[in-house]
Amino acid sequence: MNRLGWAMLALFLLLGSGFALLLGGDAPERPAPIPAAGPARFAAPGDRAGLASRPAPGLIVPVAGVPRDALADSWGDPRGGGDRAHQGLDIPAPRGTPVRAAASGWIEKLFDSVAGGRTIYVRSADGATVYYYAHLDARRPGLRERQPVRAGEMLGTVGSSGNAGPEQPHLHFEVKRMAPGERWHQGRAVNPFPLLAGGGGTR
Fold this sequence. Notes:
Layout: H1 3-23, E1 78-79, E2 84-85, E3 89-92, E4 98-100, E5 105-113, E6 117-123, E7 129-139, E8 148-149, E9 154-158, E10 170-177, E11 188-190, H2 193-197
Antiparallel strand pairs: 1-2, 3-10, 4-9, 5-6, 5-8, 6-7, 7-9, 7-10, 10-11
């Protein structure tokens, strides 16, 4: 067989195998694309090895020993004599009860204010959510800004600092969705009750 004959045979075989693939059933599955990482401007400083890149679907109840079914939804309740609406969840507990991280992330701000008292702002690893813990009696010794924390890790203790009544120690807990570039004190508050009472995380 001459060179032209071999070329014609190879072309015939190639076309035949392609036609057989079309008739022979499903093409092999392609692997699912890997989601792109969050924007670089959201990257938390410091070592965050092992932290999830997205918030967990459910949150850990941030006060130790409090079961999900004991939570009461106080979102939207009037505050300040009706001048404003409550934008968080109050979780009553004895003074000194451990407060723990509801989700993994990193400490963006340790702040003392007239209203919130001793507070902690934890930003999620992807930067899109801030978890706010207020009225603490104390923060855990050695806690510092830029420090990574894991879900369930102790952050401080329940108290009544700020404008909380001393006879009613509790944790004020907020969840804020953050737009790119927003700082710890900004963001849009969302009701944390469904995220906590709805399950998905550890008690």
